[in-house]
Amino acid sequence: MTQSTTRAQRPWAVIWVASLTAGFLTSGMQGIVPAIPAIRDHFGLDNFEIGLIAGVYLLPGVFSAFAAGVLTQRIGARKVVVAGLVIFGLGGGLLLFAHDLPTLLAVRFVQGIVFGALLSVTVGIIGSVVPSGPAAHRGQSRRIVAMAASEALFPVAGGFLLALAWYAPFGLQLFTLPLAVVAWFVLPDIRNSKSAKGADVPAESVWKAPAIVGVQILAAARFIFKFSVLTYTPVLAVDQVGMSAALLGQLIGVSSALAAITALLSERLASRLRSSEMILACMLLIAISLVLFGLADSVWMVAIGLLIYGIQDGVYGVAHNVLVNEMAPAGSRMAYVGLTGTVRNIGKFVSPLVFGAATLALPISTTFLVFAGAGLLGAGVAQNVARSQRRLESGPADGAGNSRIGMP
Where are the bilayer-spanning segments (predicted)? Predict the structure, then answer.
């Protein structure tokens, strides 16, 4: 009991461990990006087969996030995170010695299960110590920034290690092993939510959560728009307005940097706006950026669209993480967060497919305009979720004296 209480009194240590966990797990993709051509050449793969290296890693996240949320409620967040970090790190270590393709694909699949699971679990861990308000936005922004920094640094480190051997970048995944030790001593054994008096709150079904459909639509929408922009804006920029690849890369980098900055600044917005209201504003900015892409007849229109998109993306990421924790049913936070993680992963997976299918019937520019219309529909969904939040905030407190929104 004393150990658990001590951990609960160190919320910012918990937030940083959760944030570093999410950041270190990006080594599974970002750290090996420079090695993909070398992996292809070593195994004699064609361009379709090299997609298996990424596919077997990303696909398990479609189902592992929700499963991890349910498991966390049964055995606690600390055990799930520590076990996941150990499995992930040992997988990277194994690939330093086992160099056959079946082993590579099998390890990538297992690591992908961990990746999809722990990314969502870390959102719930942060939400358990700072569930709502400016503090929640501050905590979730640390996670976003840790991931952004890792996504920038791991490709550089992987490039240096590639000079040693094609498999050397997998060694970056060993960083999760010492982090697992730290996590064991820092993370609380989060299972059910607690009332203000410290008693366990009975678990409620995630399917009875308020505005669950709207919250999940907003979860998928962020990644449907994001991966469509990342995949097809370069095609439009180069083919239709003649943007150079160098300038395009610079603009995407600046857009990502803006996302990291606005993620940090979202805490200030939280004193004026609900998380759902922030997402409403972000949806409108997404629609504006997509209209600029669809109507682009110059490099500047694409550039402005990318910058607007980056500005909203950081706020959207933090605000939705906070929203999920605010709307999670009592006693079922981790399962609800896991469900949301699964929906997000589905959004990532189907995004290029949906946009690509639309381009079979429409030009890319027109498809962007259609997606802009979808952004306006998303703004309507966010408005409905905001109404639900307002009703919950004005509703009666629970039996322990807690209001429904922000109950830890």
Answer: 12-36, 48-68, 80-98, 110-132, 144-164, 170-187, 207-225, 245-266, 278-311, 353-382
HEC profile of 168-206? HHHHHHHHHHHHHHHHHHHCCCCCCCECCCCCECCCCCH
Give the 3-state secondary structure of residue 45. coil
- pLDDT tens for each residue of 126-184: 988 888 888 888 888 889 888 888 877 888 888 889 899 999 999 999 999 999 999 99
Task: Domain 206-394: give its CATH code.
Answer: 1.20.1250.20
Residue boundaries of the structural domains of the chain: 2-186, 206-394
Question: What count of residues does the chain have?
Answer: 408
How many other CB atoms are there within 10 angstroms of residue 242's CB atom? 9
The crossing angle, in degrees rounded to 10, of helices 101-129 and 299-327 is 60
Distances (CA, A) of 236 to 4, 37, 38, 267, 305: 53, 25, 29, 34, 12
**Contacts of residue 208, Cβ cutoff 8 Å, sequence gap at least 6:** 329
CATH class assigned to 2-186: mainly alpha
| Contact assessment for residue 91 and residue 110, using Cβ atoms and an 8 Å cutoff | yes
Burial 282-316 (b: 16+ CB within 10 A, else e): bbbbbbbbbbbbbebeebebbbbbbebbbbbbbbb
**Considering only CA atoms, which of 174, 4, 147 is closest in space to residue 78?**
4
CATH fold match for the domains 2-186 and 206-394: yes
Q: What pTM value is reported for the model?
A: 0.78
Cα–Cα distance between 20 and 89 in angstroms, integer?
Answer: 14
**Mean pLDDT value across residues 265-285:** 91
Q: CA-to-CA distance for 343 and 353, rounded, in angstroms?
A: 16
Q: How far apart are the first and last CA of the chain?
A: 18
